[in-house]
Specification:
142 residues; SNARE binding; Methane Monooxygenase Hydroxylase, Chain G, domain 1; transmembrane helix; membrane; flat; SNAP receptor activity; SNARE
Length: 142
């Protein structure tokens, strides 16, 4: 049984290496190439999830005295999978930011102005909220 698990481990490591390489390429591509790469990475992530499921099934069938070692490996593989998904999400967000900026003609300077206005408005809202709470407290006390 452990040979099946080790085979899955090898497949998982090869697949995660491929995914990592492709995730790094996503922000550098444009147009249909980028869409195709995103679709390929999504497909490979799904394959990796299926491999993890198979590995979990194998761990359940391993005798209890050796299961601990394999369980700790599974935790690390799940963490690695989570990191890959987060990296992929960040790379897709970078992609969508580029598309948004391209469509809107955003030069970045206006976003700084918007950020400053947002902070000012947030502070004003907090001050108003504190005044309302103080007024409410006075009303409750009377």
């Amino acid at each position: 049984m452990s040979s099946d698990f080790e085979s899955y481990e090898q497949d998982f490591s090869v697949l995660t290496a491929e995914i990592t390489g492709r995730i790094g390429k996503v922000p550098k591509l444009v147009g249909d190439d980028k869409k195709q790469m995103v679709a390929n990475v999504e497909k490979q992530l799904e394959e990796a999830r299926e491999l993890l499921e198979q590995m979990e099934l194998e761990v359940r069938e391993i005798p209890p005295q050796s299961r601990g070692m394999y369980s700790s490996r599974m935790r690390s593989y799940k963490q690695e999978m989570g990191k890959l998904e987060a990296d992929f999400k960040r790379s897709r967000i970078a992609y969508s930011d580029e598309v948004r900026n391209e469509l809107l003609g955003d030069d970045g300077n206006s976003s700084e102005n918007q950020r400053a206005h947002l902070l000012d408005n947030t502070e004003r809202l907090e001050r108003s909220s504190r005044r309302l709470e103080a007024g409410y407290q006075i009303a409750v006390e009377t």
